[in-house]
Amino acid sequence: MKICVLAGGLCPERDVSLSSGCMIANALLSRGHHAALLDLYCGAPDADDFDGFYKKYGKASYEFKVPEHEPDLDAVRRENGGRAGLVGPNVTEICRTADAVFLALHGSAGEDGRLQAMFDMYGVTYTGTGYTGSLLAMDKLVSKELMRFAGILTPDWAVVPADSAAVPESVGLPCVMKPVGCGSSVGVSIIETADQWGAALEYAKKYEDAVFAEKKIAGREFSVGVLAGEALPAIEIIPKYGGFYDYKNKYQPGLMTEVCPADISGELEAQLAGCALAVHGALRLGSYSRIDFILGEDGLIYCLEANTLPGMTPTSLLPQEAAAAGIDFGELCERVVREAAFGRI
Q: pTM here?
């Protein structure tokens, strides 16, 4: 198959996406596909279809290492002439002339449904969740409201006005400050004391104007992947040096202990799987996803959020969960593409 692996883009998760895209492209190449990595924002000014792009820019292998800090998006804009549009030259035509597009994007237009809606209008075959589920999952306020409506536990939260100077009483301390539409823990802060509020708000609003505070649930952190309607083995995430599962801990090797399959009882494994499938259904997600949870000290399972395009980097969780189910990385990528192209895995 001719597969365009779409990655990069102009959002804080750009580098994570490029790393995911490189791994995906390499896996598909190793399985005999004509796969090529295309940057959503940069595009390809001198290639107007997939065959031309593959011939000119295709590689035998791809490599990208995620830096310790978020990307400088202003520098990326300058390198591309300051262009304001999020979709680069010839991206649409290259994707239209491929057999399938593997979405390796994270955040912004790549994960919030806008790109999926455009591809639907052009008849482009793409992996993952459609535009409705992508929108519902990416907006953390909407997704939390839908989870509550479906009877799924999620930590209490409150919208934070731009001029807020104090922790909302309905949330209290400790709490977590989050942008509404970012992933990879970009813009996220743990607030333990009231004097940390201002800096946390400033950091979150660096990435997005819409911000909310969420009650911090103390406990063990788990993630559960869903593939073709079935839950994968749960993985437990444990920071080695304290802190939380932030951008640095997620993408720099050796900072986290990730146990998969998680060392938990069969009963808890079944409960986590059931919760993951319930969230997946409530948010109308597609062929695969990854759902994040906290097992609180009260013994209850709280859903933090859903990921419609889970990371596929060397340290990402979904590939580890698939491997625990006997699915190696190449097969995982193959199955995701086949679900998109043929409606089966």
A: 0.90
